Amino acid sequence: LDLARRLFVVVASAAAWVRVVEPPDGAEVSSAANETVRFSIACAADVARKGLQICAQLTNKRLSYESFTQCVTAREGGVAFELRGVAAGVWRCRAYATRGQPTSFSRRGAATAVEGDVDVAWFVVDRERWVTGLAPGTPPAALAALQRARADAGLGAQLREVAKGSNLIVASAANAPHVNLALNMVYSARRAGAPPVFVFALSETAEARLASANVATARLDSGVDLDARRDVQTKGFAAIAAMKPVAVLTVLHAGLDALWIDTDVVFFAPFPAELLEDADFAFQSGSLGPLDVARGEDHFHVEACTGVYRARRSPRVVAALEAVISELEAGVERGLDWFGDQAATNLVLFEQRFRDGPPATVSLLEPTIFPAGGLFFETDRYSPRAVLAHNNFLVGEAAKVARFERRGLWFASSQPDHVRREFSRRSDACRLASLLVGGARPQRRPLGSAADLRGNVVLAADPSLCDAASRAVAVVSLGHRPWFLPHLAPRIVHYARRAGDADVVFLGDYAACATDACAKRQKLLLATHALNIYERLLLIDDTVAIRRDAPDIFELVPPLALGATLEDVRIRASAEAQTLLALSRLAHDPDADLGVTSDASWFNSGVLVLSWLHVPLLADPPLALDPALYWDQAYVNAMRARYDVPVATLGYRYNYLGSFETANRDNAPFPARDAYFVHATTGLLMSPADRTAYLRNITRDWGDRGL
């Protein structure tokens, strides 16, 4: 049975046209293990007449080190050849015409000989090295930088001081052009609760800028100017790439494990147990496209991404990383100074496994929890519980910043005040002293009696009234709200204690507010200021009653996601919800492409679980909020769609809406007394006195049952 796959490629000279006709340019071809991959290349007649070569590069998406480029003398009618013994995989093909064979043409991997009239060039491992196993003969300059770093006792002490008793730190490196990306990463790491961060500076300029932002840093001196070298696949990148394993080895030498993080990464949440596995390395899955998600596979069936990986202290890890430096230096010797550390690392792991030994043990991080750029920025297939996102599959700082901005993740623009505060904050500063409530400093009182919930106040769980908790419950209650203090405030204070000793932030006095629109706007502004201090926030309306046995709502919602209750068909038809969302986006995001959003969900804004990542959803609300679009609800829904934030659905037990007592009574999922959060919305159609009686009856019923 002939299992061969045939690729037909039409190529012309650069002066004419070059295109792949079957499969289309960029299409993929699958192969089973040991299957023959046979392909035919056709060329225009003038290509053969001019004596050009036609080349085809095949790269296995599942094995980054399995890449072949064959160049043959062009003949009229085309040429054909085949590869045997290749691994199972998904192949990409690129074909082109050329005059002569540049040194970057490649063959990597261990497939058997290529048949046909073919010139084969080798990449990273030249032919002699592959056959003999000889190591590079020239001492690499990066190893000299490593030796200097290892000999610097002060640097080791500095790294251990940053670790603060932990055995793991986040390590990164930046030259001057990448300092802004590094600061974006560091800000997210601090807010998300990642391990302590140390950014190695690759130039004096970078060191000065990082130090001025109170980022732990030290210079790694490579002996060459690295500020002119920027991106992978650009001239001189190998010199920067070699410093990544140097930085990791320096951390290991200090007696710490290293979590290497590229500067184009943002953190969302603390790290789960996957990073504490026993493997020597734990790599991000380096899928080559947004739909290429490898799960449960041996790491040799997927590319290991070196933008995110954990390295443990072990002789095998040290040997592997020193070999990566040698491979990069060897590439520079052969003129491949644009080569990156990722392919070199995959190659070293391959050679350790199949020839050198003993191999370092390797695990892959779950790709939906640690998504690469294609998966996170181009699909909705990542998990709402994602820990981080890597802005790769994109070259150039400007392109990366633009992509971050589209998701509200370029914090210098989406959270400018917060960023300035973070990088200027003294370690001994009183965090609660910087909290604003109603544009002014609130009173600070202990988290005690609900009677203290008056005026503008923060009830702090910390006895010093200075340290902020990581969580808070925030409420605005302005105007005539007779139900709030007697019936709802005590339950809010009780719930804050249950929810991990959260603080309570309360705005109850704002003379400038005389309208509902103003109060709703102040609700969003209060949340924005609170998220400058707190990592997580429960934002509730002052018409929400909480049952005393309500579970910890923060545990239901991962930091990346917005926790809210969707108003489904029990409340309104899906077409009405879509119309409300479209009108809200037109009102608050007029440049929006209404066809671009992961879903058309419409959620109620009376109970929201937020994190520091959601500041862009709340900041700068307009002065005029439309009651026809439910005030602040329209704005938050529009911003959620704009930044494509995933929604963690809370359900009606955490936001039992008032219309279930009136217009939607027949659709009520259960009685109000069985909900954890009852929201006395305007859908009750009640006067203030009647609403007070309704909430009194709900809370009295709960109290009679010990709830």
TrEMBL record:
Residues 1-23 form the signal peptide. It holds the Pfam family Nucleotid_trans. InterPro entries: Nucl-diP-sugar_transferase (IPR005069), Nucleotide-diphossugar_trans (IPR029044), UDP-D-xylose:L-fucose_XylT (IPR052636). Belongs to the glycosyltransferase 77 family. This is Nucleotide-diphospho-sugar transferase domain-containing protein. Keywords: Signal. The keyword Nucleotidyltransferase does not apply. Residues 196-404 form the Nucleotide-diphospho-sugar transferase domain. GO terms for molecular function: glycosyltransferase activity. GO terms for cellular component: Golgi apparatus.
